[in-house]
Amino acid sequence: MSDRDPQPVERQLPTEEARDLLALVREIAQREIAPKAAEEEEAGRFPREVFTLLSESGLLGLPYGAEYGGGDQPYEVYLQVLEELAMARLTVGMGVSVHTLASYALATYGTKQQQVEHLPAMLGGGLLGAYCLSEPSSGSDAASLRTKAVREGEGWVLDGTKAWITHGGIADFYTVMARTGEDGPRGITAFLVPGDAPGLSGAAPEKKMGLKGSPTAQVHLDGVRIGDDRRIGEEGQGFSIALSALDSGRLGIAACAIGLAQAALDQAVAYATERRQFGRPIADFQGLRFMIADMATQIEAGRALYLAAARLRDAGRPFARQAAMAKLHCTDTAMKVATDAVQILGGYGYTADFPAERYMREAKVLQIVEGTNQIQRMVIARHVAGPEGR
């Protein structure tokens, strides 16, 4: 492997504070995350101590208000932090994105009292969150979920099973969407459920192709009792809360995808400039040079796309269409770039001696989570061509 260090990403950041923040993140990533990534992913080990460090460093609540322990950073900055973390290890970058997603409902729709009571611990108190929308029989058709919340006295009783939950079984809090009324989207309500609530349990983690260090599991709710003070928003508002959260969450996945793609490109360039065939580095051959040029161009385009969507969000303007475009393009780019990186490394790319094969396995899940890329195309088409069946 070449000793050639990858060039730092050229970033356009709005403030000196943001530049200092990215420097801190890069230092933590290079010192605490990247050196252990391959070994821990192979062992399927979740780095909880890294998330504790990120919380202590103020990096688990970046886009939320400082009054509750957040970082008061615009999404434009927060997403670039995610990219740097994912570049070092996708389990960490995606874990921070999921935690931010899990905190969104309370931070955006919670009452002042709820926010004062819960947000400081969620954003800077070492807690880790999970987001519970999908179920075994409702994935893309999320509005058909069956988990129920029934009123009992001053509170609610929750019963059901959530599926494909990142941090399932290890999270300290769960944002749960449950049915409180009629079938369809209008009968769904959001709840904040503590991880140690009696009746809540996590199944054995799924055995996955990649991202083995990030636990994904079903979460069972068997007569879980919570007070009405843990209901987020109004009854029946849960589905709109969930969709609003996913618009922002998709930008997080897009940023993570670009981080992974950048890591794969850096690996490919380092190898190609070191590996010699026919008396010269293989990076001198036009076929590989063109591959590298295409990889770099698609990464740069993806970064520009997710940042453009983030700036719309920061300005308070609609960004759902651009979020879907960013998620679609950036995750497809991650898959293509990771696959090309394996090709550039040749036989070595197919071995676990180099991280290229891990990047390829991990990239695939990014095209699936938080709305498959087929769903993103449906969302984009509705915005561009109008709803179906008019």
Describe this structure in words.
The chain is of the alpha+beta class and 390 residues long. It is 51% helix and 14% strand. It is built from ten helices and ten strands. The chain has helices spanning 16-43, 48-56, 75-88, 90-109, 112-124, 238-274, 286-314, 320-345, 356-366, 373-385; strands at residues 129-132, 148-152, 155-166, 173-179, 188-194, 200-202, 216-227, 231-232, 276-277, 280-281. Strands 1-4-5-8 form a four-stranded mixed β-sheet. Helix 4 runs antiparallel to helix 5, helix 6 packs antiparallel against helix 7 and helix 7 runs antiparallel to helix 8. The longest helix has 37 residues, at 238-274. The protein is globular, with a radius of gyration of 21 Å. The termini are far apart. The mean pLDDT is 96.
